[in-house]
Design brief:
heterotrimer, A alpha/beta (about 270), B alpha+beta (about 325), C alpha/beta (about 280), C: about 280 residues, alpha/beta, seven-stranded mixed beta sheet, 7 helices, globular
């Protein structure tokens, strides 16, 4: 059975036997792909999967309208599985509420629970996978002077309209009130202006440090084409180097930036 | 007829700039086409709807509407003048020009908004009749056409197999523009190319009719499920005009800005007391669709959607108002049976 | 150049009073005679304004004083966030910004000779207080005046001095109440939720109009009581307190369906409200 046929058959099966009340996957819309929310097994035929499926479906788990459909089956590529693991580690979802339909680039790995999906990562997808285009951009950026780099980002952030599509697309952005929505004090200027845009995009990248699974949904979501992944990949590289961990390896791991231990190294304090 | 070579639009832009116009056009900007200020060397694209709309130049994403100097506990208002730089929007799609009817109405229906009006008076709108359309375009479903002249001061019509443009003035501002651009225009005859084929996807009247009776329908939950509540659609939309007013201050000065806002954001209607009338995305999405096809027509006698397709192109979740309307039509048909 | 729509005028805090914990009234004077006169040409009771401070922003409150008192305006608000905190911290003599009056008004001219019933809860008395004083300042033109007002606790009752005034008048029937558990040992008023007390008081709908203003839950339970007493929805009025920003029908924030609360309201009859999309309220 080919990959898509197997995916569709499994979707119908989990709905039929009650392992899941809903399957969240992708459907085709011309050349684009769109999340689809299936409760009726007959609709499983709509499911597709390919490289154009850029949304991170784990972002939907925070929608209040979906809570009554738990447990939910989610079509998840490795970066999305990592997002699910991070959400579990941060107490945003319970393992028993999610069923993983694990997909790779050209392979369907079948239905797993969260523990099984985590094991799959360890076995077949042990490293975070930064996109090639981002690595190329980072090389270009690292050969720039600091002034040139600042100029590059200033030009990119000038395009930002503060639509917050990046935030909406990201499963890690689940705060009921985002930092930009607070006004006592107003931490980040709300206007889509140079000052606030820089702050917003950098702060969001920092808030994802150690949590971002490099799924690329933010950059795919940005209507202005800002290369947001460059920030996320660079920070992920720093986190790996400084702390030796990557997000999504362990559903019991404490968030690397969000937790403290007496053994944390202090050699950067001079 | 006034003609310009299809490959020489930059000369037209340069001629207008030399006469003191700020020229904005759809420009190749990295991987996207963006309506932005032209400068020599910029590549003008004539075959794609830009990611942003003409509204950016009339109702910018952030604008200063008040300024105060602060002295301790006292303050003094400082005069704020609206921007009235003479501008030409060169080559916007007809759906953007049609949308101006909604903006003109909202900013003038009782109180006259001088910030908008000053820009509006200073802008000359030159539309570019569309020779091609993509899957997201649906102007013909909402009473528009790819070569519509509604809202435009002049129109560029592709002609002679896309080798030339005919620049046709449509009023006083258009005539002034043509006169200013004389050095880049040739007199002659050319045959306008047929406009793009834009298949009709739904009947807007039937959509409005269904909306009037189906506020409580369960369909809204299904239709809106993929929406994650960002502002991409509202910001890209040429008719959307909701804004927030925010102060930014130092100890010496405070600036009052109006910034784009979106009814899709969760906090848009949240009251200080904690109550939120539109508490979930389904209610917010319903409000958006009803605004375009029900509330705006009711108050302003014009549809709130011009079929530009940007919401569909920009949405991270692949949602498009045209698809929603098609689904509503299916529901409408099902009920009628 | 035509005036900047969004440019407020500078008002001076002439007096301030603490009404209840976190609730303050400010009395504001106009910057000059021309501004004052221009305001009172337009102002009818029920209209609102935007009060603010540069750096903090603006907030929407009703004008809590009546058009019969033309030397000043007043506003009453609770300190809940950035703007209200900045306003509450203002001292006498200091300036604030003000834009208004905006919105529609209670049609009090059409109520002449009729009986007026006011039903209010907590911090929602201010919008009705301006109407009460408007009517009491022109007492002879109207019929019976009945006020049913309650708050969670005695301390939360606003306009305590004025409540005492109204209670002492022979030409006003005032019934005050606090929620069960909100009374103090020397509390002489009723104990019970406003809708319950309203039912007890059972004012007559004959030749009457009713004005209701309160937290959503109070309104929800009071409207059926009024209906049961025979008050027609077309003669029952309320004022909506939606989130607003521009106040002049442009920013879109206060939309309820196709209605702009800042232009078509904030005063509505219950009949008008029943025609609005309910779930969006």
């Amino acid at each position: 059975m080919d990959m898509i046929a197997a995916l569709r058959a499994d979707a119908a099966a989990v709905l039929a036997d009650g392992r899941a009340k809903m399957v969240i996957g992708y459907r085709a819309l011309g050349l684009r792909r769109r999340p689809v929310f299936i409760t009726d097994g007959k609709m499983a035929e709509l499911l597709v999967y390919d490289a154009a499926c850029t949304q991170n479906l784990a972002a939907y788990l925070r929608k209040s309208e979906l809570k009554r459909f738990r447990p939910m089956a989610i079509v998840a590529r490795p970066a999305v599985i990592r997002s699910l693991v991070v959400l579990a580690a941060e107490s945003q979802l319970k393992a028993e509420d999610v069923v993983v339909m694990a997909v790779g680039e050209n392979e369907y790995h079948g239905i797993r629970d969260l523990a099984g999906a985590t094991a799959l990562l360890k076995e077949k997808y042990p490293k975070l996978a930064p996109p090639q285009a981002t690595l190329a951009l980072l090389e270009k950026l690292s050969s720039m002077t600091p002034e040139e780099r600042a100029g590059f980002w200033r030009a990119e952030f000038a395009k930002c309209t503060r639509c917050y599509a990046c935030r909406a697309a990201c499963p890690g952005c689940y705060c009921t009130r985002c930092i930009v929505e607070k006004n006592v004090p107003q931490w980040v200027p709300a206007a889509a202006d140079a000052h606030g845009n820089y702050a917003w995009n950098v702060i969001r990248a920092f808030h994802q440090a150690g949590r971002c699974t490099l799924c690329g949904a933010c950059e795919a979501a940005c209507p202005q084409g800002i290369p947001l992944m460059a920030l996320n990949v660079r920070i992920a590289q720093d986190v790996a180097e400084e702390f030796g961990v990557q997000p999504g390896d362990d559903p019991a791991a404490k968030p690397v930036i969000g937790s403290w231990s007496a053994d944390d190294k202090e050699d950067f304090i001079r | 007829m006034k003609l310009v070579d299809a490959k020489k639009l930059s000369d037209l832009a340069a001629a207008l700039a030399a006469k003191g116009y700020r020229v904005a056009a759809p420009i190749q900007d990295g991987d996207v086409v963006r309506l932005k200020e032209w400068s020599p060397g910029a590549v003008i694209r004539t075959d794609a709807v830009p990611v942003n709309s003409a509204k950016d130049f009339l109702f910018p994403r952030s604008e200063i509407i008040g300024r105060y100097s602060i002295e301790g506990n006292d303050f003094t208002p400082v005069d704020v003048r609206p921007d009235s730089t003479r501008t030409v929007l060169l080559g916007v799609p007809p759906c953007d020009a049609t949308a101006l009817a909604v903006l003109d109405a909202v900013f003038n229906w009782d109180y006259k908004d001088e910030f908008y009006n000053a820009r509006r008076a200073a802008v000359t709108v030159v539309t570019l009749a569309c020779a091609a359309a993509d899957d997201f375009c649906f102007c013909t479903s909402v009473g528009g056409r790819p070569d519509s002249t509604a809202g435009a001061d002049a129109i560029l019509r592709p002609a002679d197999g896309a080798r030339k443009f005919i620049l046709e003035p449509l009023g006083e501002k258009g005539r002034a523009l043509v006169a200013a651009a004389a050095s880049a225009l040739a007199d002659g005859e050319a045959k306008a190319d047929p406009p793009a084929e834009v298949p009709v996807r739904f009947d807007a009247k039937q959509v409005s009719a269904w909306l009037a009776d189906n506020f409580e329908s369960d369909l809204w939950t299904t239709l809106s499920m993929a929406c994650l509540g960002c502002g991409a659609c509202a910001y890209a939309c040429p008719t959307c005009h909701c804004f927030d007013i925010q102060d930014e201050a130092t100890r010496q000065e405070s600036v009052r800005r109006r910034n784009w806002d979106s009814c899709g954001f969760g906090l848009f209607t949240a009251h200080a007391g904690g109550h939120n009338p539109r508490a979930n995305q389904s209610a917010r999405w319903r409000n958006r669709v009803m605004h375009k096809f029900s509330y705006i027509p009711e108050r302003f006698k014009t549809l709130g959607c011009t079929g530009c397709g940007r919401c569909g192109r920009m949405c991270p979740a692949g949602m498009a108002i045209a698809d929603i309307c098609s689904e509503i039509m299916r529901a409408h048909e099902a009920v009628k049976k | 150049m035509t005036e900047n729509l969004y440019q407020p005028m500078k008002m001076r805090v002439a007096a301030s009073r603490d009404e209840a914990p976190e609730v303050r009234t400010l009395r504001l004077e106009f910057p000059d005679e021309a501004a004052r006169a221009a305001f009172f040409v337009k102002y009818r009771v029920g209209m609102f304004g935007l009060y603010g401070l540069p750096g903090a922003g603006e907030s929407t409150f009703c004008v809590a004083s009546p058009p019969t008192r033309t030397e000043y305006i007043e506003c009453t608000f609770r300190r809940v966030g950035r703007v209200t905190s900045a306003l509450a911290d203002r001292e006498i003599g200091q300036p604030i910004t003000f834009r208004g009056p905006y919105g529609n008004a209670f049609p009090i001219e059409s109520w002449k000779g009729r009986n007026i019933l006011f039903v209010a809860g907590g911090i929602a008395l201010p919008p009705l207080r301006s109407v009460i004083w408007n009517i009491l300042d022109r007492r002879a033109e109207f019929g019976d005046v009945t006020i049913v007002y309650g708050a969670r606790t005695v301390a939360d009752l606003v306009y305590k001095d004025e409540l005492a005034d109204w209670g002492a008048r022979q030409d006003v029937r005032l019934v005050t109440t606090v929620d069960p558990g909100g009374e103090t040992p020397d509390w002489k008023g009723k104990i019970g939720f406003v809708p319950t007390v309203l039912k007890e008081v059972a004012p007559s709908p004959a030749s009457a109009v009713a004005l209701v203003c309160g937290p959503p839950i109070m309104i929800k339970f009071s409207l059926p009581v009024l209906k049961g007493l025979g008050f027609p929805p077309g003669d029952t009025y309320t004022t909506l307190e939606n989130r607003m920003k521009c106040g002049i029908g442009k920013c879109g924030r206060c939309n309820v369906g196709s209605v702009y609360v800042c232009k078509d309201g904030p005063v509505f009859t219950v009949e008008q409200l029943q025609r609005l999309p309910h779930a969006d309220m």
